[in-house]
Amino acid sequence: LTYNEDESEAYRAHDASTHYKYRGTYWNEGKREIMIRYIQLALIGLIQGSVAYFCNVACHYFVERKFERVASILESGSYFFAFLSYFGHQLTFAAFASLAVMIEPMSGGSGIPEVKCFLNGIDLPRINDIKTGLCKVIGVVGSVSAGLPVGKEGPMVHSGAVVAASVTRSSVRDDKARRDFVACGAASGVCTAFSAPIGGMLFAFEEGASYWSQSVTFRTFFCSACSIATLYTWNSVGSSFGALGFDKLFSFGNFIFEGMQASYSVWELLIFVFIGCMGGMIGAIFNNTNEKLTHWRIKHVNHSKFRRYLEVLCISSIVSIVCFGIPFIFHECIQVPDTDGMSQQQVELINRFVQFGCPEGQYHPTASLFFTDGNDAIKLLFHMHEHTFPEKALLLFFVCYISLATVTYGIAVPSGLFVPSLLSGAAFGRLFGNLIYKIIPDKVAFSNTYSLIGAAAVLGGMARMTISLTVILLEATGNEQFVLPLMISLFCARVVGSLFNTDLYHIHIHLKPGVHFLDGELRAISGHHDLYAGHIMSKDLVFIRPIEKVATVYDLLATCDHAFFPVVDTEDRDILYGTVSRHILTTLLQQRAIGVAANPSASPNRNIVQNHVTLEPNCNYVPLVPYKILEREYPAYTPISEIAVSDNDRECFIDIRPYCNTAPHTVQETTSVRRAYETFRTLGLRMLLVVNKYNQCVGTITRDDLTAEA
Amino acid sequence: LTYNEDESEAYRAHDASTHYKYRGTYWNEGKREIMIRYIQLALIGLIQGSVAYFCNVACHYFVERKFERVASILESGSYFFAFLSYFGHQLTFAAFASLAVMIEPMSGGSGIPEVKCFLNGIDLPRINDIKTGLCKVIGVVGSVSAGLPVGKEGPMVHSGAVVAASVTRSSVRDDKARRDFVACGAASGVCTAFSAPIGGMLFAFEEGASYWSQSVTFRTFFCSACSIATLYTWNSVGSSFGALGFDKLFSFGNFIFEGMQASYSVWELLIFVFIGCMGGMIGAIFNNTNEKLTHWRIKHVNHSKFRRYLEVLCISSIVSIVCFGIPFIFHECIQVPDTDGMSQQQVELINRFVQFGCPEGQYHPTASLFFTDGNDAIKLLFHMHEHTFPEKALLLFFVCYISLATVTYGIAVPSGLFVPSLLSGAAFGRLFGNLIYKIIPDKVAFSNTYSLIGAAAVLGGMARMTISLTVILLEATGNEQFVLPLMISLFCARVVGSLFNTDLYHIHIHLKPGVHFLDGELRAISGHHDLYAGHIMSKDLVFIRPIEKVATVYDLLATCDHAFFPVVDTEDRDILYGTVSRHILTTLLQQRAIGVAANPSASPNRNIVQNHVTLEPNCNYVPLVPYKILEREYPAYTPISEIAVSDNDRECFIDIRPYCNTAPHTVQETTSVRRAYETFRTLGLRMLLVVNKYNQCVGTITRDDLTAEA
Ligand SMILES: Nc1ncnc2c1ncn2[C@@H]1O[C@H](COP(=O)(O)OP(=O)(O)OP(=O)(O)O)[C@@H](O)[C@H]1O
Ligand SMILES: Nc1ncnc2c1ncn2[C@@H]1O[C@H](COP(=O)(O)OP(=O)(O)OP(=O)(O)O)[C@@H](O)[C@H]1O
Ligand SMILES: [Mg+2]
Ligand SMILES: [Mg+2]
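ok -> structure tokens follow
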């Protein structure tokens, strides 16, 4: 993707005419366009908010139904038929989810790596198509309903990006604006997934930080506000007089304790440091295992659609067996606690306990974790009294669930990672809290706090984000007191995790073939201190001249697939004249923007072309093909193979100068790689030309060259 | 400030030797340096947290004392003596605060504009000196205790920056690292001022967004966590077993209502939009008036220290008269409400009511706003029941207070703007809420919510930040429910305010002479569409040659004060060889890194120099003066006037090539100004060279040239 403005004569003429249009009256074209842009942003927010809301509702409905049926069979005492029904439901949903991915393979997985790539400037095919978005959303409803250990947060991010790209498809004419919109869309996706508007913005910022500008901040802000407003509005439908209730949105429930007392002491921060480190370790193991699995999968499964489908079914079956079998084997019933002295929230949560064959008034602790909706399990872990779950159940749940999640991520269903990490982390944290409580009772925080910190630590160890996760989790808990513990545990998780490997999204990005992701900073800097741009550039330059024969251009385009070509003025000391992009050349050929054929009997004569367009260097002549036409086919241009050039035309000359970017970004060949990398990345380039000290082009640097060395 | 790495031979040699040191063992120099860096960050957090805490405590103590004394005189019934005592106290404190500014003029005002300038790359003298920081902190205690309508938030930001710069003074050797540390320091300043760690980070990010990188995010995160932990720790001193209490920190009090019900309905968001717009308007008027006043002040007051001092005393007197006089004139007593059915917090706040001569069991509403500490007044406005303050009192307070704040900002005391804006905004919002309540009773939110939104709107209208203010206010309220109303009102305030003028900090930056601030985006873009870099560059190039006579260099340095010089190879087609900075040249002269004197009888002979250092272009010869020595005097270098060069030396040659940056950032003269601006700003350059197509340097662009056109 080209995140840089063109600087050719043609673009300037276009730009000048646009500005001309904008001049004058107070309410002018420019203002109108800004208006339209904001309306589009509002629309993105609106659509994404609605998508997220209905996706939420659908998941909720399906899961509820599933468990209702199974529970009714269970009540009649027949474990076997209950299992069959459960198994059948889960399998059906999983098959359905996988079907969506079969239709559109890009819609598998979490979607966050894909969005990251896009923001980084990598153009993956079909990533922002409406079809992909639809499959993703429908698929994720299926996979969540199937009870797989997946969340719908990653897919929501992807869906936000798709919505943004789709809404602006017809009106946005360059990659840069498109990227900014996609960043807004991704932010609103996060924002709707967690009902965390600030967290969403920070997520988009933490992922796309290198290209950030203040106006993008502002637009993301607006878009997030719109989407969260939509979500609230949907959510208040039905309640009297538009009063808000937050019950149907993603949240951790109400983390507010009595009085203004804090829920932890200062010295407990040290314990949180420890939990953070543990979480980092767990995350690192998770990432490592999942990487190995994905390698195996790429080799043995991914080449055939049938195998991928089968894999989904297998895993779904395993999940069903585990989730049903473990509560069945470790059967245990505990008295439901008294509701006296409980907060209103806890009283409500009591209904979330799962009986699983226990008599009335009792609940089954293991089943309440395994055999229920993920969100309910999280809330139970976060809010119930410390003796609610025995340590054995917590340990069992933690181990099984995280293993299942490891295996699941990467199969052919849309699947987010946040909920599984949070859930297993919550179990881990609670377990830890209970143990601490046994050692020093009465002096430590409620184990709920530990549960929250554990969830943060495991998630942080897996995703390695800091500021955005802090804010997301803070917004989900809604209690500012936890800001410091969350910061501490996320920080430690990241530091410890980074000792072993990188975050899961990165791992998956690097596993994609042919994707060259530019990290925030150059890795392995120590190796680069005396490596120059001249060392890493591609040296076999394919260039064209300012005025070139059509035949040459055509053959060049047909034989080599570079996206940009330097234009070298061979008449004038071989200096660099500019660059021209492939799609401009093809469009020129398509439009037959060519000079009169040279007299074939005479030797090719420059003068004929010179008569055609003026050659004075400083004269702003109107280009033959206006910029509007050059970019008409954006974003998908006709490939050269579909353009036919007649034999007669082949002998003509084509004047590329008006379409050249005459001020390309260049570096000297003696520039260090570090500086070249920085320039490339901060300016969001697609190609950097390397010149020698006479401004003769000696090579090119693209993404490929930079990552090959990094 | 130079935010770019050098690329000279000397630097490379230095870099290579550093890397060489780092190689090998697992625990190496590099790791050690990272450790040290984090320790420094922790230290910054620690110091700034302590500074903020003690500053808080001191203000609290002084203000408390002042009001205690006055109240005791008041009780004895003598209004006149009470006024005298009040007046005297206030005047003394103001005189004290102003004294601090007299000692160090840079410590006046809010400090945020100065920090913004620094992050933007402008080197204001003495901005980060310890003396400035001390004066600022001591002064702000004085000015807050003096009851002036100022806050201590801006000064805290400045103090954070000073702390960061001071802690790292001895170990940080380049501007870039220093900037990153200062950004961290500023973040921790905000963080301690509002106890809002995330808000602090976002503040630093919103101000320094163009140079942001992921590692800076991470470091800021760490630094904020440290400072907030320090603050909490200090705060928990004295409480049993380190339990946290948040009472002594900045906060808006507990914004939590009963149940999980939200405190507003969806349709009320429209009202918030309206409040936001009003706030934007108020902010715009505020900014405009203050700008006019500052102009006047620059002309008539600022040239003499005595006048500035007198001004402070005058304004302090006016403030005292108003704050005492208005409650005195509009005397009114209201029954203190019953404590039944009140939250614990409200019960506590009842003690904050001011009697001002009212009988026991009653309070004076106007005095409770005017004649009290700003933080208490804010809490009363935010939390008490809607009939607490009559509309008349609110209106009166709003008008008087905001006028006083307008007049005060800019006088010679350290003064923040957040608290005044919040306070007047809160009064405005509450007024508005009460009016709405009269029209449609029972259906709207508690007027407290309106109060909060009003505060946000006025602050937003003045400072025009969006995301960071949202988060700061959200963290201060601690209730996630308000995120959407806050976002909406801040957004509207900014949009409406921007129709009229820019934010107050910008206004004050532009009023500073000789400061060229680079905004996020080029203003007045419409004027630039066919302006090239060649048009705006400085054309009278002062250049030197790779090998130059000492006399020439010395005279050049003495006669012109540019910071960088292009090195032009006059032997080789006049092409650009590189750039060299002024301080390197002076250091070279100082170190006598010069060749053998040319035989004065013969014509100057190149060969003599050539014997001295090898001339093969690709040979990495060890430079005569190592990089360590070149940067030894950082950040303040000896001026050329203090360096004496003997007559004999003047005839020698000096070889600049090893010290040249051979890969300077250049642009073609045909580059559009827009692109040049973007390159300059995103890469954080200090000088951009303009070259023609033969790579001959034709001009230079610096900050001055870019802002002259913008
Ligand atoms: N005009 C050129 N002459 C010679 N080598 C080139 C030229 N353009 C690109 N290259 C080299 O070819 C390789 C691939 O270039 P390509 O144009 O595919 O860039 P890209 O960034 O991968 O673009 P795309 O996203 O279209 O694949 C790189 O190593 C690059 O340096
Ligand atoms: N070597 C040079 N030859 C000619 N003009 C120059 C040269 N260097 C700078 N200038 C011009 O002189 C003006 C001021 O330059 P100066 O070196 O003071 O830069 P600056 O960014 O203001 O640095 P400082 O922060 O040290 O003041 C600018 O208009 C710049 O274009
Ligand atoms: Mg390629
Ligand atoms: Mg200057």
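The beta strands of chain B are 334-335, 362-363, 547-549, 564-569, 575-581, 653-655, 666-668, 687-691, 697-702.
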